[in-house]
Target: Intraflagellar transport 88 homolog
Amino acid sequence: MENVHLAVEDEDLYSGYNDFNSTFFTEELENDIGFQQALRTSQGRRPLMTAKLPGTAIGGRPLASSFGSRVPLASSAGRPVTGAVQEGAARPMTSIRAAGYTSTMMRGSTFDTLGQHRGPAPPLEGKNEDGPEEKIKIMEKKVNDLIEESCMAYSSGASQLALEKAKEARRKEQALVRQREQSGTADHINLDLTYSVLLNLANQYEHNEMYPEALNTYQVIVKNKMFNNPGRLKVNMGNIYFQQKNYPKAIKFYRMALDQISNAHKEMRIKIMQNIGVVFLRMGQYSDAITSFEHIMRESPNITTGYNLVLCNYATGDREGMKKAFQMLISVPLGIDDEDKYIPATDDSSTNMVIDAIKNDKLYQMERDKKAQAEKYIMTTAKLIAPAIETSFASGFDWCVDMVKASQYVELANDLEINKAITYLRQKDFNQAVETLKTFEKKDSRVKSVAATNLSFIYFLEKDYDQADRYADLAMNANRYNPAALVNKGNTVFVKQDYEKAAEFFKEALKNDSSCTEGLYNLGLTYKRLNRLEDALDCFLKLNAILRNSDQVMCQIADLYEQLGDLQQAIEWLMQVISVTPTDPHILAKLGKLHNDEGEKSQALHYYSESFRYFPSNINVITWLGAYYLDTQFCENAIQYFERATLIQPTQVKWQLMVASCYRRSGNYQKALETYQNIHRKFPDNVECLRFLVRLSTDMGLKEVQDYATKLKKAEKTKEIQEQRVRSGRESSSRGRRGSREGSADSSNSSRGERRSGKNISLPASNEPYESSSPKELDAYYVDPLGPLMERPKTGAKRVVEEDFADEDIGDDLLPE
Model:
């Protein structure tokens, strides 16, 4: 124990371990002021020693510095460099030489850190472009450029140019392969380049609908075992057969592709199975399609497959299958983030700038389109299966609404309720529709506005303008920026003939939605009522820029040009209407009228004839055609038109008299006599018919002439008595100055009628030719003067407001943008 020494408590057992001699720390020498000062003094620039001592372990090889050059180093203590070898002398060989570096400092050497004493670097050797390998590389680059140009041409819509580029790339690639074979480097053929050329060529053939060539090109790729995974291209071949409607072969190739794709590529297999289901659906094999779609919905559900599954179950009439498929459809996850992330939650300007930047970017637009597509599919399937899954469509709609309320699409429940009301409207059950829509009066403003807009529309169609005005106000109060509500309000004001106020509502609707075509159309109609034809024309020209092929809009423009007196412009616009609806008889008749006003009888005849061909019941067209052939002395052609008029208006005696007149003018007196006799049997008191019967009987020497003359006198006396009674009644009922003028006008008209009848009574002498009398005098009484032709009953052209106003479509009110 004497040799045992206990440690003192204050003594540190680990002292000394952290002591460090700064002499050995060389990393901070650059910052050591003393060391740097010593380097700058004469002590740091000692002369080199020239003595040569025996070589040490350090050889004569210079040490590489940080600048890349090899610099011979001297001893730090000034001792001469040992082991130096004279320049040009052979290096001594020794078997006991130690490893390491040997530094040599020759007399007269300079410190050249950049190695400038070596001179400039030798020039690079130029490529020999005439070599076979260089030519092959150049050709490969050209082929790649052609493939890229082909793809770019197709992306810009130039399919034919893309195909030409693909063909040229194929030709150059084949020349490249031949050159490889000739140069003996066939083993180095670029298979990836060959695959790219063939695949692009097949795609371009397919895009240009050259399906046989595309199939042949795909076959070349598939049969080549040197390509990687060529079996996937059988999907493309199946798509081509699908386009050709060769569905059995399409299924065959889809299944072949499915067999060659491993289970690791799950998404690819799902897409191929979806194609198989669609083909079964096209073939009408709904059970097989249901099997494929159900498998997809279990493995990787998506909206499109769920929609197709509902359609297949609807086609088979499986009620439970429809319900199950609809539930699967509304439970498909969309994978879309909550829209609340786009709402600024803080006052941080940088965060708000980021939110504004991503609020309408490509990703958000894609999410919005995906959600809109899902909602469209759900609404369509609900409207489709609602009448089929229950005994009544109302119960079916109620079930669909309950299912939707329990899903992620809660906001679609109200839209389904409105669709239920629309279905009532289609079934003409207006009371149920109104009751259904009235249930939305206490709901949120958007739904209330939509429901009130539809109620206003219904009451407007029923001509209950007070209720229509009330619900239009309710829709506007719920949503002042609803253009449909403003249009309906303008319609109700228009009915009250307050055109200025109606124009204000239509203008406000256009301010809220510049694409509201109904408001712009109705504003043009309002300007027409206000006789502001130039403003109306401006509205319809703007509308024509939006609705290019709308015959209603072009008819309005033509009508306005006609009212402005520019008939040539009116004809040009009606010709555009004919290009859209070439079989519209009213437009053809209108063109005939305008050409007739311009004095172009041949063009008028053409369009009137075309109008009669498509609609042989227009009495104005028939009148014009019959009168035209009478004026041109083609009475036989006029007969068919007046006979048609007789069938249309059998109670009008004038058409039958015109038929008889045509026979008489054409010289067929026997047929004319028979026609007059038929007319007399139907209208025994007709004076004109009896006059011509007397005349014809006299000329033909018939014994019935005396009988017809007696009946004529009796009919004339009866007609005179009736006319006197009418005149006396008018004179007794007339009051005031206006009544006196009306009475005098009636008497003058009747006197003119009497004078006209007097001319018809005078008969020619027996030795006078039958046609000596003027045909106009004979037929003056019953020839119908050609008045203005009836214009086309087109929407918005000449109808009353409830018929011509383009009111808001009910379907558009359901899902406002």
Summary: The beta strands are 63-64, 70-71. The longest helix spans residues 705-733.
